[in-house]
Amino acid sequence: MAEERIADIEEVPEDSTLLFTVREGFDEKEVVLVRLNGDIAAWRNFCPHWTDVRLDKGSGAEFRDGEVVCTRHGATFEPDSGHCTYGPCEGSYLEEVDVEVRDGGVYLAEDHYEFDHVGPKSDRDLSSGRIGFSGN
Ligand code: FES
Fold this sequence. Notes:
Helix content is 0%, strand content 36%. The protein is mainly β.
């Protein structure tokens, strides 16, 4: 199996998230990496309150007092456990994705996902402009 290196640890921001896309069959799914003290956690990029709301909209999720914030209704999540500590989905958890840290890199460790690319799903518009399919 190909090495599923997602990024260098250094590329994962301290107070935000690094967004990447995995493939499960024909489906693309977004995942965010969060830097912890010397470790990395990974969560599916949606809010448990409204699952069509993304935590990282393409330029990093918001952090407040060390917690991930869903900007839609203000829910906050512990970056290491994914536990929602406040907000309309208080008590719920983000969906975890297994990653491994070794040799200064972060690797995908979920058998049913394949790493596709860093960044949002290819069928999404970014606020800064459309992603073209022409390759230019
Ligand atoms: S959608 Fe995230 S708090 Fe409501």
